[in-house]
């Protein structure tokens, strides 16, 4: 099992804290992928913009199918 160093919710400051709060507000919890970016929250912002640009060009169903196919090809069970 892989362990990634993260900033705990109670220690988050600045942009990482804002991202944690946004996740809590929008999803009711902080997903692991948000925590994984906590040491470099500016990278999370760039990633979110990239995903947004990709999604804006596809219907939701297609995006989900492509995401699922990529996860299967990579052997991702998450």
Radius of gyration, in angstroms, nearest whole number: 14 Å
The major sheet is characterized as:
none
Strand content: under 5%
Calculate the mean pLDDT score and round it: 94
In total, the number of domains comes to: 1
Report the span from N to C terminus: 12 Å
Poorly predicted ranges: none
Strand tally is 0
**Count of helix runs:** 4
SSE-based structural type: mainly alpha
Portion of residues in helices?
A: 55-70%
Coarse morphology? globular
- H/E series: HHHH
Question: Can you tell me about this structure?
Answer:
It is a single chain. By secondary structure, this protein is mostly helical. The chain has helices at residues 14-27, 32-36, 41-56, 60-74. The radius of gyration is 14 Å and the shape is globular.
Features:
mainly alpha, 4 helices, globular
Please write out the topology:
Layout: H1 14-27, H2 32-36, H3 41-56, H4 60-74
Write a brief structural summary.
By secondary structure, this protein is mostly helical.
């Amino acid at each position: 099992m892989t362990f990634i160093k993260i900033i705990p919710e109670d220690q988050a400051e600045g942009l990482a804290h804002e991202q944690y709060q946004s996740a809590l507000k929008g999803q009711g919890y902080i997903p692991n992928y948000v925590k994984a970016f906590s040491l470099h929250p500016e990278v999370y912002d760039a990633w979110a913009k990239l995903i947004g640009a990709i999604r804006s060009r596809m219907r939701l169903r297609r995006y989900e199918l492509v995401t699922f196919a990529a996860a299967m090809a990579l052997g991702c069970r998450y």
